[in-house]
Amino acid sequence: MRSAPQRLTILHTNDIHSHFEMISPVAAVIAKQRAAAGEDPVLVLDIGDHMDRAAVETEGSMGQANIDVINLTGYDAVTIGNNEGLTFSPEMLDAIFTGLQCPVVCCNFVDSSTGAPPQWMKSHAIVEKDGLTIGITGATVAFTSFYSLLGWEVSNPEDALREQCRLLAPKVDLLIVLSHLGLPADKLLAEKLEGVHAILGGHTHHMLEQPLMINGTAVCGAGKFGRYVGRLTFERKEEEQEFRLVTGECIPVDPLLTEDRLSPVVGLHLERGREALRETVAITDRELPLNLDGESPFGNLLAQAVRQFTGSQLSLVNTGQLLGHLPKGEITTGLLHSLCPSPINPCIMMLSGRDIRMALEQSLTQDFRSKVIYGYGFRGGRLGSLAVDGLKILYNPQSMPYDNGIAIFVEGEPLEDQRNYSVGTLDMFTFRMGYESIANGTDTVFLLPHFLRDLLRMELQRPGSLDESGVFRWENKLK
């Protein structure tokens, strides 16, 4: 008989999104919690979206900066989110995770060509800590149509997790699920899965001050961007007894904290990231201004870039994808990254004239241009106006919203409401975000893995593109 209860402390993070300014403070909190646990074992887990290519450190190192800090912090297992799975090619992921010193655990993600997980991933892991065996499995959100374009097959997470839990539960002392599926899915899983001690969640950026106890399972989430570290403590008094949850909470992370090993590493990766992004892609002879509330040359350049890449009749993009003016002179990969950081991909669809008209009319309203957008790859602030290419639009700026009587021309002919047109646009709109009528498109083809900044690079190198961007497509009827 043991003289003291067996305890296990679990620390968890999620959706850090390459907020490297919080990496050292998070590591400091984890180190402090390890020290406070004394001789009791501590398990450290991450629930995905640790990487975000909007950060210079991640973009400049192609994710290696994230791997370094995960290793140095001492994580025991991680799963992947959509920011790992969808913004890096399979070849990039092979290179990124080769150096990871802990298992990547995800049971609903396989290589389409083999039907097996990639070599850097496991369907589950069993970790031993001070004589305890902890079974860990995980799942990521099934953006099936996107993943298939990259050569991945992502299956129903509930079915995959149920099978893994059935295999693991008889073999381990505790069973943990890493769920990059979102809080609504986690609640349903807790009701349906058997033998699970905790579901550690991410994706929807939920912060639960205390776990939700559902069917004996602790459902948890630690917010986003490294602002919190989740902590659970499980205990049993006798080896033949079941572990039970003693405490559960989210610990706020003081951004002024530092961890001695991590601080210099973070600074070094920032410096190296900036160096890697110094490649010159173009030299311009003029500034391209940006206007989020109307038409501007830089917005037009982005619309041109999407139309040229997709080969469509016309293109519709929101100017909020761009974060500032394009200056005159040397244009580097780092500058394009800073001006267009969102990991958003182009797509081509068939869209009715009626839906095109609706989006353009909405673009004339301040309510839409000022709409704040969160998630879905968007890394800007507000939606902004619609920039177009392949269209000519006559409008009255003094009309009431939706009473504009705008005249729209495609290839010199009036837009027909009942006709379908090939439209180059952004994958973000297919989630019914922003200009929602664009989501009504059919026969959509997503063009992964190209980002908008990749298309801008190509457009800047196309002869005549800057001149074309200065030709306005929206014409004031009153002038």
Present the secondary structure layout.
Elements: E1 6-13, H1 23-37, E2 42-46, H2 56-61, H3 64-73, E3 77-78, H4 82-85, H5 90-98, E4 104-105, E5 109-111, E6 121-122, E7 124-129, E8 132-140, H6 144-149, E9 152-154, H7 157-168, E10 174-180, H8 183-192, E11 198-201, E12 212-214, E13 217-221, E14 228-236, E15 244-252, H9 262-276, E16 280-284, H10 297-310, E17 314-318, E18 329-332, H11 333-339, E19 346-352, H12 353-363, H13 366-369, E20 386-389, E21 391-395, E22 407-410, E23 413-414, E24 420-426, E25 442-446, H14 452-460, H15 465-469, E26 474-476
Parallel strand pairs: 1-2, 2-3, 4-6, 8-10, 10-11, 11-13, 17-24, 21-26
Antiparallel strand pairs: 1-14, 5-9, 7-8, 12-13, 14-15, 16-18, 17-20, 19-24, 19-25, 21-22, 22-23
Helix pairs in contact: 3-9, 10-14
